[in-house]
């Protein structure tokens, strides 16, 4: 085992690092603060990302509100979440309502990037007259929910981005 003060010669064969962490071992970072080395020039605007447009999020939010959200009875355009396909992350619903009882279920009157499979009617119980149809992502064909006979979408196999 090499002395800690010796300079590493770059030979990978003498690596003695053991990544096992046992109870009682506390891992701490080696560097807790970055300091500019003396003699180097100071770099300004480290927080500025040349590829980030700080106004883009606001513009995107305005576009979604104008183009995709329908006003409610009080003329308010809102949603409980934006829903995405769990298979490919394609947006499937921009305006929905959270179910009152079931925390991971959503209702919507409109979906995007989805197709309804009306070839087979589904029911919740054997004698239940209510029929449902599978709702699938157009991009990857993943099941994301159901459509009932009244045309309401029930989405429950989705990834939500809470609004």
Automatic annotation (TrEMBL):
Q: Which GO terms describe its cellular component?
A: nucleus
Domain of life of the organism encoding this protein: Eukaryota
Q: Where is this region: Disordered?
A: 1-21
Which segments show compositional bias classed as Acidic residues?
1-17
**What Pfam families does the entry give?**
Eapp_C
Q: What protein name applies here?
A: E2F-associated phosphoprotein
Origin organism is: Symbiodinium microadriaticum (Dinoflagellate)
